[in-house]
Amino acid sequence: MCGIAGIIDPSRVADTLVNDVQNMLAQIGHRGPDGAGCVVDNGFALGSVRLAILDPAAGQQPFSDPSNRYWLSYNGEIYNYLELKSELEAMGCRFQTNCDTEVVLNAWITWGPDCLRRFNGCFSFAVYDCKTESLYLARDRFGKRPLFYVRQGNAFYFASEMKAFLAIPSISFEQDAGQLASILCVWTPLPDQTGFKEIKSLPMGQWLTLKNGDLTTESYAELRFDEEPQPNDEHAAQELIRERMNRSVELRLRSDVEVGVYLSGGIDSSIVALLAKDFSAKPLSTFSVEFDDAEFDESSDQQLISEYLGTRHCAERISYQDICDQTPAAVYHAEVPAFRSAFVPMYILSDRTRREGVKVVLSGEGADEAFLGYDLFKETLLRTSWDQLSGEVRRSRIQELYPHLAHYGPEDTAAMTGLYQQFSKERMPGLFSHELRFQNGQFSTRLLKDKNTPLAAITDLISSTPDYDALSPVEKAQWLEYKTLLPGYLLSTQGERMSLAHGVENRCPFLDPGVFSLATAINLKFDDGLREKRLLREAFRNRLPDRIIEKRKFPYRAPDAAAFAKHQPDYLDLVLSDAELAKLPFLNAAFAKRLANKVLTKPASDISTKENQTFLYLLSISLLHRSFVRRETLPRATLPPLEKVINLQRETAA
Amino acid sequence: MQQIRDFIEDQFLIEFDESFPETSDLFKEGVMDSFGYIQLIRFLEKEFDIKFSEQEMTANVMVSLSLIEKTVSRKLSESITD
């Protein structure tokens, strides 16, 4: 895994670009501590920091073809690179390394952007064509690997993480109140949003071209739910699940270094660990977070799986104090506002993983979206069929929806029925499945002086998506999850930004395109969807302990405001002091202070989920303002060992 | 009825005024969520010693301060006439 950065600026000569690109790389050195490299010429600079995983000795970047016409800075892994390499060799390509980097460049030279559809993996990369003076940027279909860019007149900057732009004084990090309104309401940035005015994210499944000053973007992988025929029967469906998951895990174990597994204690990561063990000759290492607070702790299930599979298990126990201590650093790495604190333990866990000598892990992300694991999908089914259901069925279905939330208990079922009645008709066009979430999100927009129109951006996004209207209510719910919570939080803030903060790469077998397309072909075809991920569970029933197979979805959560209320870290001044709050010009300081005071003084049982979320937003936005806007308390940037510096004007190599 | 207004203002961190009138839909404005709704119902039932039927709770009568006040007044007067 790596980090990439680059500059296109026709007005600058090669010599003046070297320092800038190296300074950008230093800001993201944590992504690739094994080495750094760059290539510069008049008008362009490309660089990368790398975490050596495949053919460590030969994978130095940027990588060029023998003619030096094409230069590649590449972040990611193409899991099917061996198959693509054979195909390219049959077409006459010759390879010097065993690295997937060389396969990516040859695939691009051979097929152009059509190569992207062939890639099964997580990636973002930049290719510069010296002959046509064109830059191409591309990102994987689910948004596993990040890529941000800034355009200022004729100058164009890009990087794996926004913090690289801290090295360019002309780039401001002004927070965008309009985007913040959308983020607060929807929970996460939309695919092109970052929360900062000047900085854009290249959406998942897209590629960008910059040529003669013209910038264009195109999609190569729309999310489709009709790409595969339905299997004949449930038995065939389960067999296919096992086949695809086997293949997916096998591909993701391709590595020249040890691969571990993040074990949550749930069914998804247990399946991943089981299959990883099937393919591993050596004992498998597994990693988990445990909590002092029993409400969040899944350690007994984690230990059960670890013992069952005989893994070398490393558990990191998280206290309220740990959350308080590490939140500022974790927010700095996340770079975007966060609505819960559960990413902070993952920051701590990746540090432990790296210290245990493991720099690649598999995890279970993507299973809930593909196989309908979230209660949100059941809630959508319930609200869709509300008018056809009897009072008795409504009541029993409501009680089964969110058993971990006390206010969904039997004594309040009548009131809940009243609430759901109000949400049984679509009120936000196209967003039916997420109306309760977004309605609650509107509470958080009260943090802003001007609430703007928080749903405008997501409404534009679905309106501009071909065939969105034709999706079923549950498919729309999935689509929204694949464009918001999954890439905007789970894979990024809680996923790769936390793991790469400590040089650990994460891989997600449930995000294999073949697994996704199979799931879309079998969901709700053999059951009513009321037992979450039923087919997935049944497919592995005889291979995992019954307790894990039967375990209900236990949302991964961590102590939110309660941790801060208990330990009152110094930086809470950012959300409690009038002077500090006044530094954020877009903030409704009176509401922010009132909320912070309530959340930090009242018992946790009096604090609602949306108040918890709103507090986390306030805290993270304030911490981001301190780091990125005011550039205070920034960690020291360190460039990894410089392995390669090529100045095409001088043709000298270090 | 002042105690209902106080409860909502205190619990949901809002203030009723010209920009946020008593007729505002508390759900649509993002003020009340499922947790808050349950808190409110429990408060009203305890404070006024009344009980809401499921029918009342499914008839969209509890979405704004003015509707809540009206519903509570009606229930109180019904209990007196009973």
UniProtKB/TrEMBL annotation, chain A:
Pathway: Amino-acid biosynthesis; L-asparagine biosynthesis; L-asparagine from L-aspartate (L-Gln route): step 1/1
Site (Important for beta-aspartyl-AMP intermediate formation): E365
Positions of the Glutamine amidotransferase type-2 domain: 2-213
Highest taxon listed in the record's lineage: Bacteria
GO MF annotation list: asparagine synthase (glutamine-hydrolyzing) activity; ATP binding
CDD domains, A to Z: Asn_synthase_B_C, AsnB
GO biological process terms on file: asparagine biosynthetic process
Active site: C2
Catalytic activity annotation: L-aspartate + L-glutamine + ATP + H2O = L-asparagine + L-glutamate + AMP + diphosphate + H(+)
A GO cellular-component term linked to this record: cytosol
E.C. numbers: 6.3.5.4
Pfam families, A to Z: Asn_synthase, GATase_7
Entry keyword Aminoacyl-tRNA synthetase: no
Matches recorded under Gene3D superfamilies: Glutamine Phosphoribosylpyrophosphate, subunit 1, domain 1, HUPs
Residues given in the record as L-glutamine binding sites: D100
Record keywords: Amino-acid biosynthesis, Asparagine biosynthesis, ATP-binding, Glutamine amidotransferase, Ligase, Nucleotide-binding
Annotated ATP binding sites: V289, S363, G364
Family under the similarity heading: Belongs to the asparagine synthetase family.
PANTHER family: ASPARAGINE SYNTHETASE, ASPARAGINE SYNTHETASE (GLUTAMINE-HYDROLYZING)
Name this protein carries in UniProt: asparagine synthase (glutamine-hydrolyzing)
Gene that specifies this protein: asnB
From TrEMBL, chain B:
Gene Ontology MF annotations: ligase activity
Tree of life domain: Bacteria
Keyword Ligase recorded: yes
Keywords recorded for this protein, A-Z: Ligase
InterPro entries: ACP-like_sf
Name of this chain's protein: D-alanine--poly(Phosphoribitol) ligase subunit 2
Organism of derivation: Roseibium album
